[in-house]
Design a protein that fits this description.
- This protein is an alpha+beta fold and 370 residues long.
- It is 48% helix and 21% strand.
- The strands form 2 sheets. Strands 6, 7, 8, 9, 10, 11 and 12 form a 7-stranded mixed sheet that branches. A 5-stranded antiparallel sheet has the order 2-1-5-4-3.
- The longest helix is centred in the middle third of the chain and has 36 residues.
- The radius of gyration is 29 Å and the shape is extended.
- The two termini are 54 Å apart.
- The C terminus is likely disordered.
- The protein binds adenosine-5'-diphosphate.
- The site of adenosine-5'-diphosphate has 22 residues, from helix 9 and helix 12.
């Protein structure tokens, strides 16, 4: 099956299976024909692939095994193979025998699917881990109480308070998970409004002040540079939630009697809201990943009673902030130095001001049509 007719059949197959990697090999597992995707993956010209053994061309034992199974049995074979530079892509492989000998290998890239599956597995493992700790405490405390082994009223009340605290922690975790899944879901519709950044900051200061006072942390509101005027286009509830998460962290990771500062400034066609603290800071090595779901730097960095008081220690707070920013076509970031402090920010689109051109305004209106 090497004549012009089969060449045409091979071309037709290539056209039909667009994006898939198609190879024709002989019974000795040598390449007879190869599509452009195959040559790209092997990083060789198609002409130099011809006549090469499958294993020499792709260096994938798992691919070779599927082909060998089809060659030995004379029947179609199926499997999965890691391929590409450092085996970083995964393919579903079909080997279909041809009547005149040899067979066609069709490789469908399933890397994205496997990645999603991995993320989902990690997600479930992370949630289970976060739920297990408070659940174990609740069960132990309740068992001790119901066994009747505690008879003095003070200890009993103390146990009951601890159960209550753990239950609050669980409730907050569930709330955060629900928030995250709602913001992540494509259907999330933002109730966009034209907002005054001053008022956005003022509302956050109002909400964080009682929490900060309990830890003797001062809250300061910094005015933007003279003459700065801007309006933002954002969902007030969501933006408020993001800023409150940042402010909560700033308080939580501040030293007692520290200070947090909230401010805003214009950066290009966005407004940047910043929350700064002089707290423990984020080590360089963690800064890249800090906005990922469930990512925590180190639990021991915050005293347990503080964590209880301030809530949120599952590593979801910043992930929620990032998703809110992305839903607004905005951005998040941080500048931090360990032992010195951190500045976290969220940027959302702003309405074009008088200084902006009319066409800029048009583009923004299109940009926020979510
Ligand atoms: P958590 O719910 O654990 O606070 P976050 O997603 O809000 O989760 O934060 C992730 C990690 O980032 C935290 O575990 C903490 O170590 C670090 N972090 C967040 N904000 C600050 C800050 N202002 N200063 C120092 N570390 C911070």
């Amino acid at each position: 099956m090497t004549g012009p007719q089969s060449a045409a059949a091979f071309e037709a197959l290539l056209a039909r299976r667009g994006g898939d990697l198609i190879l024709q090999i002989d019974d000795g597992l040598r390449i007879v024909r190869a599509g452009p995707e195959a040559s790209a993956l092997a990083d060789r010209a198609t002409s130099s692939l011809l006549g090469m053994s499958l294993i020499a061309a792709f260096g994938s034992a798992s691919l070779d095994a599927v082909a060998r199974q089809a060659a030995t049995s004379g029947e179609a074979a199926r499997g999965e193979a890691d391929l590409g530079h450092l085996g970083d892509r995964q393919f579903a492989v079909d080997a279909v025998p041809l009547e005149d000998g040899g067979f066609v290998l069709s490789l469908h890239d399933i890397s994205a699917l496997r990645r999603i599956e991995r993320v989902r597995r990690d997600f479930v493992a992370n949630i289970s881990h976060e739920l297990r700790t408070p659940l174990t405490s609740i069960k132990l405390l309740a068992e001790t109480l119901s066994s009747g082994s505690v008879d003095d009223g003070t200890t009993m009340r103390d146990f009951a308070t601890q159960i209550e605290r753990e239950a609050d922690h669980l409730a907050q975790l569930v709330d955060e998970l629900l928030d995250l899944s709602m913001i992540e879901s494509v259907e999330t519709t933002l109730a966009l409004e034209d907002l005054d950044p001053e008022q956005v900051i003022a509302a956050t200061v109002e909400r964080i002040r009682p929490v900060a006072e309990r830890r003797e942390v001062r809250v300061k509101r910094l005015a933007p540079p003279e003459g700065t005027a801007a309006r933002v286009v954002a969902d007030p509830t969501r933006l408020g939630q993001a800023l409150l998460n940042l402010a909560h962290n700033a308080v939580k990771y501040s030293h007692p009697a520290g200070e947090i500062r909230l401010a805003w400034e214009v950066v290009g066609d966005r407004v940047r809201f910043t929350v700064a603290d002089d707290g423990i800071g984020v080590p360089d090595a963690h800064q890249q990943r800090i906005f990922e779901r469930f990512y925590k730097v180190d639990r021991s960095r915050v005293r347990d009673d503080d964590a209880q008081q301030l809530g949120g220690s599952a590593g979801l707070g910043l992930a929620i902030v990032r998703h809110i920013a992305e839903a607004h076509h905005g951005a998040v970031g941080l500048r931090s130095e360990e032992g010195v402090g951190s500045t976290f920010w969220i940027e959302v689109p702003r309405l074009p001001g008088p200084a902006d051109s009319a066409s800029g305004g048009q583009a923004l209106r299109l940009g926020i049509d979510l």
